[in-house]
Amino acid sequence: MKADFASMTSLCLLRLSAIGDVCHAVAMVQAIQKQYPQLKITWVIGKVEYQLLKHLPGVEFVIFDKSQGWRSYTTLRKALSGQEFDVLLHMQVALRATIASLMISAKVRIGFDKARAKEGQWLVTNHAVEALATPHVLEGFMGFAKAIGVEDLTPNWHIPVPAADTQFANELIGKDEKVLVICPAASKAERNWLPERYAAVADYAVSQGYRVLICGGPSQLEVELASSITGFATQSIENMVAKTSLTQLLAVLKNASVVIAPDTGPAHMAVTQGTPVIGLYAHSNPGRTGPYMCLMQVVSVYNEVIRQQFPNMTIPWGKRAKGDDLMSLISVEKVIQQFDALLEKSPR
Questions:
Q1: Of 25, 184, 248, 317, which has the fewest Cβ atoms less than 10 A away?
Q2: Mean pLDDT throughout 305-311?
Q3: Is pTM, for the whole model, over 0.85?
């Protein structure tokens, strides 16, 4: 199989969302590019995710705008009309991705293994990646690179940022400043930690000589959460929510000393920039979705919650815990303990 892939000239990657997942996919794409530097790569990607990755070298993007409804599929078909790829990497388990893949012509169509190829994915692929028992999402993605003969699966990231956005971040955060960035909001409110506890950790960081920035997008959930955190804080916290583009945020995360975040995209963005992340987890298994290079720094109650919800049962690796108040089980003390431990290792 490897000999066949050595002669391929074009590859299409289908991964529409979300921010964290496309960050994982970048590591896979760049591992492929390292082994096959002449390979033409086309990435079918979501509209928001494109804003983060649009400067990625050696990749042609085709935007899939799900807000267009059924028109999004005809738009995709027109964009790829007349193209037949040697390989399609079908990397999204979602019905809309399964339908979207029908608009893509490819000789070899690689999807997930049988256990993970849900939402009809197995119907539109003719090859499968190697099955893995307990993979992190990034490792699962690297399985696609391995399937086409890539040998070096070590994750590395190079996500270019416009010079103006780098300047924005450099003006916001001085070279020798100690800065904690809190990205407090996940896509679902139940995965967010309590605002008064974020505030308590922020106050502690200020007492240790850190500036604290709260960052995030413009959604009402994020704006209201940031406002609540600053309201509870007794020290000065800078609210940058809704004030950065995705590439500006990436540059800010690069300049940060430490990032604290729940199960959300900016945690994975920070990983791509080599910045230490303290992830806060209750609903999902951090071994599967945690900040990949910082898994030892995660503060998690997931295992305890799962044992309580499913006593004496063997639980699938990706099983989610259910409950609206699970994040309240994460204490301020545990997060500060991890913060202090991180500072001992890297006191920047």
A1: 317
A2: 95
A3: yes
